[in-house]
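RECORD TYPE: inverse folding
INPUT: structure tokens
STRUCTURE:
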């Protein structure tokens, strides 16, 4: 017996596919390609963190734990950010999640209803668009341009607000742009949130990956009385723990409490042994983090120097993260065509800027979380492409 309607829901059939993953999969056909695609530290998880996870398994910490996270980890996160933000954060303000992606999912789940609008930067991490779509919300893009040093501006946000605006997602430090928003704009966005009654969901997963000449401001530290925020964090990038899938979200208790109920219905809880490893990360020595960030800073200098020496390419010096947002517009190819040709003709895998939104056209995202040799080889291949045009 056949049915007149599709077996697959309209939400699933129209879910926006990630062009990052599309290019990643395309690159699998070129096993010897130099890859500047995936945003992942090239370091292994530090030994003391791995040891804590292994020890937890050996001690049989392999059962269900509290939905919102084990108390010790929630308390440790609260202590760290109370000190950093100079505001009182308790464990009741913290929810532990399966990576920052689940934290973002829950942040949208509790603040956005179907048909409501969510303002997002363009270019931005493509999963923002997908998460809003999954909820039945409407993503409203605000262009972020090179003229403004790739920083989202409050005046542009103001122009995008309607009576349907339920939330805004900001991402500073930014993937893919490598920029850090100015404090004044973050303060003004907080004012707009109070004025119009929307929530600021702040993706801060690169908050530790800021270089010496930049000042990062969290939405949580703009005013002690501002509580219309959900700050999303992660252990993935900071501690080279991408596969451990440990993130968190911090916000007002009335925001956090329902998230534990959502966690119960989705995944129950993050594994206890993963949370013990995360506790060791946050409470143990931070020297590995400092060394990783210093290494990214050196590689950034190499990337900036090499890219800006190539005819037709330009790169604003990234203030944070491990991404170079390279202007390729002078080459006159759309970014997907360029990325495809670099892969097929020069065995170089990159991510087209259009994968991050329409305003990303004319750019490539290159990661410098790779060795200096890899950066040099990649830039040699970009030079070869420039010479052969």
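DESIGNED SEQUENCE:
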């Amino acid at each position: 017996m056949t049915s007149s309607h599709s077996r697959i829901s309209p939400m699933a059939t129209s879910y926006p596919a990630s062009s990052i993953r599309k290019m990643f999969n395309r690159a699998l056909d070129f096993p010897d390609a130099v890859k500047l695609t995936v945003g992942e530290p090239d370091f292994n998880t530090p030994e003391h963190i791995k040891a804590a996870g292994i020890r937890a398994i050996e001690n049989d910490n392999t059962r269900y734990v509290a939905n919102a996270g084990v108390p010790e980890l929630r308390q440790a996160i609260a202590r760290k950010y109370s000190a950093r933000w100079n505001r009182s954060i308790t464990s009741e303000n913290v929810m532990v999640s399966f990576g920052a992606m689940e934290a973002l999912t829950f942040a949208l789940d509790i603040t956005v209803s179907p048909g409501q609008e969510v303002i997002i930067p363009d270019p931005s991490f493509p999963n923002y668009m997908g998460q809003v779509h999954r909820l039945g919300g409407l993503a409203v893009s605000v262009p972020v341009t090179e003229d403004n040093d790739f920083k989202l501006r409050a005046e542009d946000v103001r122009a995008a607000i309607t009576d349907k605006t339920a939330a805004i997602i900001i991402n500073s430090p930014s993937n893919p742009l490598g920029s850090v928003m100015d404090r004044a704009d973050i303060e003004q966005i907080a004012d707009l949130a109070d004025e119009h009654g929307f929530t600021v969901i702040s993706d801060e997963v690169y908050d530790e990956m800021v270089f010496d000449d930049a000042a990062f401001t969290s939405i949580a530290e703009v005013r002690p009385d501002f509580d219309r925020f959900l700050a999303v964090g992660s252990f993935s990038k900071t501690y080279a723990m991408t596969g451990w899938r440990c993130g968190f979200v911090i916000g007002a208790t009335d925001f956090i409490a329902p998230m534990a109920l959502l966690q119960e219905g989705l995944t129950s809880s993050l594994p206890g042994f993963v949370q013990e490893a995360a506790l060791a990360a946050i409470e143990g020595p931070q020297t590995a983090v400092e060394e990783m960030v210093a290494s990214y800073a050196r590689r950034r200098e190499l990337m900036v120097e090499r890219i800006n020496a190539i005819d037709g390419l330009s790169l604003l010096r990234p203030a944070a993260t491990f991404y170079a947002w390279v202007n390729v517009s002078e080459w006159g190819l759309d970014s997907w065509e360029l990325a495809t040709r670099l892969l097929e003709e020069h065995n170089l895998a990159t991510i087209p800027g259009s994968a991050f939104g329409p305003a990303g056209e004319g750019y490539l995202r290159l990661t410098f979380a790779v060795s200096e040799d890899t950066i040099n080889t990649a830039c040699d291949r970009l030079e070869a492409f420039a010479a052969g045009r």
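NOTES: The mean pLDDT is 96.
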